[in-house]
């Protein structure tokens, strides 16, 4: 449990350095939200649409967005008061809670509701079967993260033991996985967008399956804050979530081309046509949550997947780490 060990060290360090500090912000200052996102991804289109379409300003929120690149870094930023809200996988809140955090990270709004990765083959395959993975080299994601856990869950669902029936490579850093595949490593690779579609467009690889379609609904990426921050800033987080919900509804109603134009400034290295292709793919498989409410069913499924991967440190009740009152107030 590599990720859990890293989080243990991080939490111990923070507990030695920081003392609980009461919130002393004025009402004006409370309208500013510092948001740390785990990565920059078209997978998060409703958030970027809410920003570009002005929904946060409409709700009186001054949103400061920072990309912190990685689950452990994002959680460190949140726990050390470097951010008010973190956009990250819900599994990280369980890792932190399991270490006995006295101010745990609590999930209050959902953004994505499926896995966001795709299975890409080096060779074009007219009729892919999961059995085709047997005895091949599979370039997977890092141990302890949701992509890896969902990937293993799906393979096992189709009768493939990822640690026995194929050569599983998990030693490559997340950011270098696409280039490793492009340079010749692996017969198959588990990729996020836009790399998957870009590789297909360039003939480097071919999308043969979607891990999002193969796994049940799961709170893959969402918004969390420290429990103390939620208690002291409920109205501000309600405004934040109303803006998010507007973005979710807007993305649900618009075409992929319109959405791509709206969020293009967040992806300066990708052309609008590629962004539209990716948005369309995610829309068609229902990856974007259409409202911010995180359900108990999805929370249970998350822990089933974590447990099957050997990464669940302890079972955590839904009510311990999920606050539904904020999303419910927005939906009323």
Automatic annotation (TrEMBL):
Report if keyword Signal is assigned: yes
Question: Which keywords does the record carry?
Answer: Signal
Please give an example of a GO cellular component term from this record: periplasmic space
Where does it localize? Answer: Periplasm
> What Pfam family does this protein match (any one)?
NMT1_2
Similarity section: Belongs to the bacterial solute-binding protein SsuA/TauA family.
Cross-referenced PANTHER family, in alphabetical order? ALIPHATIC SULFONATES-BINDING PROTEIN-RELATED, TAURINE-BINDING PERIPLASMIC PROTEIN
- Return the protein name: SsuA/THI5-like domain-containing protein
Q: Which organism is it from?
A: Alkalihalobacillus alcalophilus ATCC 27647 = CGMCC 1.3604
